[in-house]
Design brief:
By secondary structure, the protein is of the alpha+beta class. Helices cover 20% and strands 30% of the residues. The longest helix has 9 residues.
């Protein structure tokens, strides 16, 4: 079963602020652990 076949139970918005800069990452992958999504977005690591 694919994630798109079921209703998601989680959607996360991560905000990182440094001075006036804000980086926002939204994780709508339906996974409970958004760490890998953040790591990919910030550091381009897979």
């Amino acid at each position: 079963m694919k994630n798109s076949d079921i209703a998601c139970t989680t959607e996360n918005l991560y905000q990182f602020k440094m001075g006036n800069e804000v980086l926002e990452i939204t994780d709508e992958t339906c996974d409970w652990d958004g760490y890998y999504k953040m790591r990919k977005e910030i550091f381009n690591l897979h």
